[in-house]
């Protein structure tokens, strides 16, 4: 009921904002008294300083090459081609200087061999991330599946729909919004609400969550405090339940007389209690960050997670370079060759299913090097290594700013490791297959407007 009303309201708001954005400029109208009166009224409510309008159109092509014993091969023996078109329309209307309404609508069309292969796997498909978007857990269902079958998906949804009230010492934001806490670069244990997967390269927009966020600045020397409530539904009962909500607070400040930042968080996430602390400082010309969390599970057990990183920019052979090194500790991780047991642990399965945990090992090292080959062309190489296997991921990708508004991206994801390592392939219980992810090659073109 409420989701339907919000969907309808969001469509009307976006259409209205689109009409106001495309309306003729009032300054081009006649200067008669009657027209001048209308122009003044229009400019007051819909002038250029009131409305921001834009978006992007992206087209992605992905080729996945499953290994001979990989689970996807059980559903599809041929190389898997995925083609996806994405249109995002966004608008921000400044109701007053202190009140802003923001709406983002995104429409996807997906023709996917991976989706077909996963559908043929039945229950085993849960070992891989879904290829579609849904609001099964979010408070409001703002997604329409226009058409869906075994290898095709066409949907439209609202990924941002919030109102912000600014005041002199902070702001209050209510609605579907992006939330990011913590200082991790690929792994971010403080960002429990909707983290990016560490292998995600296109990070223009994080998926929004239905939440209320309040931030207040205590003073220049006292820092700031943030309060957050995330609302969710139980995907089985479809009811909004306290056990599905997140409620958290964050305090951030600088240590007097230094450039060192301190962040502390505490809160409830689903049925767990989460506590964390982070530091950001500088070592020579490098920025250093350290985040650590302690989680108390509903049954009383606890586990910790930690990430520490350092990044630095330099010149070499006349080229601009940038790089980072990051260490990640996953307190829920398994020892070497114990990964099959991860699927039997509820705490691990829940976090994998909710998109909060992406690995099953314990210690990881990730790196990135970026080389500016040309002011418009950059080459990146990301690596993720399970230090106890060892096994890992290598992701080279190149970006080219073709024009001011058009970008071309080419990338690949390659997995290495011996049998029964995390990225070399762990046997799937009860089958002849392993869960080794497929080698993936992909490209996308983005047009921003």
Outline the structure in words.
There is one protein chain. This protein has 5 helices and 19 strands. The protein is mainly β. It has an 18-stranded antiparallel barrel. The radius of gyration is 24 Å and the shape is globular. The two termini are 34 Å apart. Mean pLDDT is 87; it is low at 24-31 and 123-131.
Q: Nutshell version of this structure?
A:
The protein is mostly beta strands.
Tally the helices: what do you get?
Answer: 5
Average pLDDT over all residues:
87
Give, in order, the helices and strands.
HHEHEEHEEEEEEEEEEEHEEEEE
Using DSSP, what is the number of strands?
Answer: 19
The rounded Rg comes to 24 Å
Beta-strand content bin: over 45%
- Helix/strand/pairing category: mainly beta
Main sheet record: 18 strands, antiparallel, barrel
Helix content: 10-25%
Principal-axis shape: globular
The low-confidence runs, each spanning 5 or more residues with pLDDT under 50, are 24-31, 123-131
Q: Give the N-to-C terminal Cα separation.
A: 34 Å
Task: Spell out the blueprint of helices and strands.
Elements (H helix, E strand, L loop, with lengths): L1 H21 L10 H14 L4 E15 L5 H5 L4 E17 L2 E14 H9 L21 E7 L2 E16 L2 E8 L31 E11 L3 E8 L15 E9 L6 E9 L2 E12 L2 E11 L5 E15 L2 E12 L15 H9 L8 E12 L2 E10 L4 E11 L4 E12 L21 E10 L1
Antiparallel strand pairs: 1-2, 1-19, 2-3, 3-5, 4-5, 5-6, 6-7, 7-8, 8-9, 9-10, 10-11, 11-12, 12-13, 13-14, 14-15, 15-16, 16-17, 17-18, 18-19
């Amino acid at each position: 009921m409420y989701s339907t009303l919000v969907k309808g309201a969001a469509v009307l708001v976006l259409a209205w904002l689109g009409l106001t954005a495309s309306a003729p400029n009032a300054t081009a109208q006649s200067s008669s008294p009657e027209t001048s009166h209308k122009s003044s009224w229009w400019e007051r409510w819909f002038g250029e300083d009131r409305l921001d309008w834009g978006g992007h159109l992206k087209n992605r092509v992905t080729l996945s090459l499953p290994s001979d014993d990989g689970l996807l091969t059980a559903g599809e023996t041929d190389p898997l081609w995925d083609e996806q078109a994405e249109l995002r329309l966004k608008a921000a209307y400044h109701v007053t200087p202190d009140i802003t309404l923001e709406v983002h609508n995104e429409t996807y069309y997906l023709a996917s061999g991976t989706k077909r292969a996963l559908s043929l796997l039945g229950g085993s498909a849960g070992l891989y991330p879904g290829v579609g978007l849904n609001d099964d857990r979010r408070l409001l269902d703002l997604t329409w599946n226009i058409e869906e079958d075994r290898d095709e998906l066409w949907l439209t949804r609202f990924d941002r729909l919030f109102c912000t009230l600014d005041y002199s010492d902070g702001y209050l934001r209510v609605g579907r919004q992006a939330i990011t806490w913590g200082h991790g670069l690929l792994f971010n244990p403080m960002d429990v609400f909707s983290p990016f997967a560490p292998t995600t390269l296109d990070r223009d927009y994080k998926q929004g969550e239905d939440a209320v966020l309040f931030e207040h600045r205590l003073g220049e020397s006292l820092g700031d405090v943030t309060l957050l409530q995330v609302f969710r539904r139980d995907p089985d009962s479809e009811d909004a339940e306290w056990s599905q909500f997140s409620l958290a607070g964050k305090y951030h400040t600088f240590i007097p007389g230094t450039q060192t930042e301190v962040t502390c968080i505490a809160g409830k996430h689903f049925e767990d209690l989460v506590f964390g602390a982070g530091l950001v400082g500088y070592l020579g010309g490098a920025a250093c960050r350290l985040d650590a969390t302690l989680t108390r599970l509903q049954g009383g057990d606890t586990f910790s997670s930690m990430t520490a990183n350092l990044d630095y920019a330099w010149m070499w052979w006349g080229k601009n370079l940038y790089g980072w090194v990051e260490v990640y500790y996953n307190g829920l991780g398994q020892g070497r060759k114990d990964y099959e047991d991860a699927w039997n642990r509820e705490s691990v399965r829940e976090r994998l299913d909710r998109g909060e945990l992406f690995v099953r090992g314990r210690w990881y090292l990730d790196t990135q090097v970026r080389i500016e080959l040309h002011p418009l062309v950059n080459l990146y190489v990301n690596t993720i290594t399970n230090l106890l296997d060892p096994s890992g991921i290598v992701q080279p990708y190149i970006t080219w700013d073709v024009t001011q508004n058009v970008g071309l991206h080419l990338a690949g994801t390659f997995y290495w490791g011996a049998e029964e390592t995390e990225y070399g392939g762990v046997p799937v219980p009860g089958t002849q297959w392993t869960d080794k992810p497929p080698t993936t090659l992909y490209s996308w073109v983005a047009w921003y407007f």
